[in-house]
Amino acid sequence: MTDQHTTLQFALDAEYAAVYSYGLIAAYANTDRARLVAEFAAAHRARRDATIELLEADGTTPTAPSAAYNPPAPVDDPIPAAHLAVSVESDCAAAWYAVVENATDESVRATGTEALTETAIRRARWQAILGANPVTVAFPGRA
Q1: Domain membership flag for residue 20
Q2: Does any domain span residue 31?
Q3: What's the CA gap between 130 and 2, in Å, rounded?
Q4: 112 in a domain, yes or no?
Q5: How confident is the model over 105-125, as a mean pLDDT?
Q6: Which residues span the domain enclosing 94?
């Protein structure tokens, strides 16, 4: 079993990558999706900041973000940008699932559940944009 601090740091790392990746997604997404991309990027920034505060409140110094993140595939038009968004949301779901699974504090588990739910909804929205069927899975974040 992984400890709560480790999984929170893993979730923070996923949020750092999401914030970075949404900058790339914004550059290549369809212009009619600009509001959606901005909303989702803001949600990840807020979750990143809240996770930093959660770690600091518990006496843990969060690690800094990486200087850059490599997408799993080249992003050069709207379709790969949407696929990157699905990948980002999947990674965040896995990280927050681990927080829920390993939380020893009720408030951390509640935060993880909320974050997992939010990222699963965002992932489903991107899957719908891509025309996937079904748009979600039974247990988002679970391997």
Answers
A1: yes
A2: yes
A3: 34
A4: yes
A5: 97
A6: 4-62+71-129
Residue with tokens 């990222």: 119
Q: For residue 124, what is the domain's CATH number?
A: 1.20.1260.10
Distance CA 43, CA 33 (A): 15
Helix (H) or strand (E) holding 130: none
Is residue 143 over pLDDT 80? no
Q: What single DSSP character describes residue 59?
A: T
- The CA-atom distances, in angstroms, between 14 and each of 37, 76, 128, 133 are 17, 22, 22, 25
* CA–CA distances in Å: residue 110 to residues 50, 97, 100, 113, 124: 13, 11, 8, 5, 21
Over residues 65-108, the pLDDT tens digits come to 999 999 999 999 999 999 999 999 999 999 999 999 999 999 99
8 A C-beta contact, residue 143 and residue 94 = yes
- 89 located within any domain: yes
The total of structural domains in the chain comes to 1
